[in-house]
Amino acid sequence: MDKQVFNVLKEVQEKTPLVHAITNYVTINDCANILLSFGASPAMCEAYDEVYDFVKLSSALYINLGTLTKEQETAAVLASTSAKNNNVPVVLDPVGCPAMKRKVEVINRIKEVGRIDVIKGNIGEIKFLAGMNSETRGVDSLDNGEDALEACQKLAKDFNCTVAATGEKDYISNGTKNCIIENGSELLTKVTGAGCMLGALCSATCGAFEDKFVATVSAILSMNIAGEKAYKTAKLPGSFKVALIDSIYTLSDEEIWKEGNVTWK
Fold first, then answer.
1. Which of 8, 26, 47, 83 could form a disulfide with 88 if both were Cys (CB 3.0 to 4.6 A apart)?
2. What is the homologous superfamily of the domain 3-264 according to CATH?
3. Annotated binding site for substrate
4. pLDDT average, residue stretch 11-16
């Protein structure tokens, strides 16, 4: 494993990055709690009149399109502009974009006037954004992962950023460097918010570490290994979600190094 991945969690815990989140109302509390447990500081600021200035104070901006209101849309575009002007990394989670044309328009607007350092979505969303055939149902991916790495590579080159496609296996590319992660637990698909929480963790690592590809790999490994830890003590969805937060809190860089199942391409 790339030894830099081993150091990212320590960087987060030492720097306590402030993550400015404009995010999904269904999972906003989950994102805040997992950021705190990870060692970051969450701020769920989405008021249009406040976001431009608040981005200046932040280590990273997380934009999640899951429950995209008009207020969130205008705030997200303005916040991304501030991020571009103030050199703040942006993680975009294109939740449900295959089902809603409007969300693609918002993504393109952010690309035009702001910045995007990482796109983190499920395999169906990433393949859709890459212009490839994908299988989705609402906000869920039904895709089997075929050509997922190719989709990440294509989208990474188009947006000049790091792209992560999550599923049974997770695929990450920055257009040059690529990897596949085979950690995780099936119960991560049985609780609301696992994907949104992962996007929040990607924002924390990107706010603490310069290499966004390495930061994204580290965040995904952290979430998946914490899921494996949680499953050892909690076999049902309700208790699993609690155990997941606890497992993120107790996660060590040694565990990431020891347990990570990563293939570098």
1. 83
2. Ribokinase (3.40.1190.20)
3. 44, 193
4. 96
